[in-house]
Amino acid sequence: MLGVKVSANVRRYFFPGGSSSSRSSSSSSSSSSSSSSNSSSNSSSSSSSSNSSSSSSSNVINIVVVVVVVVVVAVAVVVVVVVVVVVVVVEVVVVVVVVVVVVGVVVLVVVVVVVVVVVVVVVVVVVVMLVVVMVVVVVVPVVVVVVVVVVVVAAAVVVEVVIVVVIVVVEVVVGSRKEQQVKRITLAF
């Protein structure tokens, strides 16, 4: 194109009037220059359109990158929040479980102590009742029997003594009377 423009300018410079062929060549050169200018304008428009398309594509890429970054950051924030919430919930659950276990152990110890105390009290009461029953059922009758036996033996001894005394008295009285009778008889003879 530049060669055509240069030859056209050279012809115009060296042959200003020119012939019909030169005029036709100059017209053709002018048409070719116009076509070249059109093509250059077309190319510039196409380049501008390509530039605009590339700028729009770069804008789209930038938007996509920004959106991806925002999404990644949002996902990271959500993950961190979820992890923190899960950790807090786990800690709360662990604390609750520990408290429940401690309370359960304390309650179990209290229940065991109460049961042991109740069992000891029941055993003591049962032993005391058994002792009382044994005293009432065994010791009292034995004491009563012993007392009765002692009374009976004492009564028997007293009765025997009385009998012996009576016998002795009777013998003494009878003997003295016999002696008196014998004396009377002997005195009568």
UniProtKB/TrEMBL annotation:
Residues 14-56 are annotated as: Disordered. The keyword DNA-binding does not apply. The chain crosses the membrane at residues 60-86, 92-114, 119-140, 146-174. Residues 19-56 have a biased composition (Low complexity). Keywords: Membrane, Transmembrane, Transmembrane helix. This is REJ domain-containing protein. It comes from Elysia marginata. The lineage of its organism: Eukaryota, Metazoa, Spiralia, Lophotrochozoa, Mollusca.
